[in-house]
Amino acid sequence: MFDPTTKEEGHDRAITTAQMVEEGLITKELLENVKATATKTILARQEIAKRQGLILVDTKYEFGTDENGTLVLIDEIHTPDSSRYWQVEGYEEGMEKGEQPKSFDKEFLRLWFKENCDPYKDATLPDAPPELVEELSRRYIQMYEQITGGKFVPVNYRHPRMERNLKQYAA
Known about the structure:
Elements: E1 5-8, E2 11-14, H1 17-22, H2 28-51, E3 54-59, E4 62-65, E5 71-74, E6 83-87, H3 91-96, H4 107-116, H5 130-148, H6 160-166
Antiparallel strand pairs: 1-2, 3-6, 4-5
């Protein structure tokens, strides 16, 4: 399924492919290139995920063009921020019982924010509870290790700009 959206004042707006062309957001030729590239990319990633015991349920891609009009896939891809992954193990049995599949996405954290504030309207958002942040970290590490087949090793990357910006939060 190809389900395009476009940005509008802080949120995505559902739009048909015909509307995209009619509104001048994209040419028909470039749209076909986007669809073909998105389809090829997700099918390849689904195969990789399957070999690692995962189901790539859906994902979001962001495309743009460079100064020459060449299609460019921008932003991160295939992370829990842009994709939903389910475990293959136990999937069929769980579905037969009407249970939610075991997943790696950040939906639980999004739901917490939805219940505790309005992320689109509130000027200041509450801090997420530490246990939810820890759970999100645990899931990201587990997914990294499952997809890559390797051990997650934190990198001690220090950049002066990052240190300066984070200094105010240091204990």
